[in-house]
Design brief:
- This protein is of the alpha+beta class.
- It has a single domain (1-75), classed as Pemi-like Protein 1, Chain: D (Ribbon).
- It has helices at residues 15-21, 51-58, and strands at residues 29-33, 39-43.
- A hairpin with a 5-residue loop joins strand 1 and strand 2 (39-43).
Length: 75
């Protein structure tokens, strides 16, 4: 299957592929250029819970701190 780039730089993903992967208008993608020159698209999926949700779950969590000696390393 082939596709072309429009004068605006847009690439059309053929309908059978969009339907198979359930791509919708407005979906976000990451674009990677591989070392061999190939280009790869990866859909960005929103997380199931927000970062704020995870921080709220941490409320009341206490972490034990240990007093350990710090070892110095020379470079």
């Amino acid at each position: 299957m082939t596709t072309t780039i429009s004068s605006k730089g847009q690439v059309v993903i053929p309908r059978p592929i969009r339907e198979r992967h359930k791509f919708r208008a407005g979906d976000d993608f990451l674009l990677f250029e591989l070392a061999n020159g190939d280009i790869m698209l990866r859909r960005v999926r929103s997380p199931k819970q927000s970062l704020a949700w995870h921080f709220r779950r941490l409320r009341g969590l206490t972490l034990e701190r240990r007093r350990e000696r710090v070892r110095e390393v020379a470079f």
